[in-house]
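seq:
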Amino acid sequence: MSVVVTVGGLHGTGKTTYARALAEELKLRHVSAGEIFRATADARKMSLDELNRLADSDPAIDREVDEKIKEEAAIGNIVLDGQLAAWMAKDKADLKILLIAPKEIRLARVAERDKLSPEEAEKKTVGREEIEKERYKRYYGIDISDPSIYDLIVDTNLYPLPEMIKILKRIVSDYIAELTRKRKR
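struct:
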């Protein structure tokens, strides 16, 4: 049986961290749209900000990343993370998870991860999110602020990271086990 789980959310919510942990727990592959985007920036010798600005005028950049997510969803047995992962996986996704966290927590996480000052993290993240939100609406008609596509919404700030990982692993493992039982009937 093939399983596809998507993990979405804004920058700093923990998409890749939680997706990796879930993939490991469920013995599934993991692909991150953010990592694909970063690799694209590196290959072009550009910063993330530069590639994000270029993507605003060149739909081919987003489409390349998004097609990869669609391909991986079609293969199955995977946890996909990315802001648009749920929309790209569509009906191939068995469980679509949205991670949320308060803005100040997200920005602090981004600052730590990217080694930025809090002010730099806020400027870059807020600007990037505004550009992406508008771009996703323009390119795909997707409103990333609408959570209705998701099956599960989790605030990653409720407990410390190790505890939140345990909680999410338990929820997803139980869900997948029940899904497996239903498919075998």
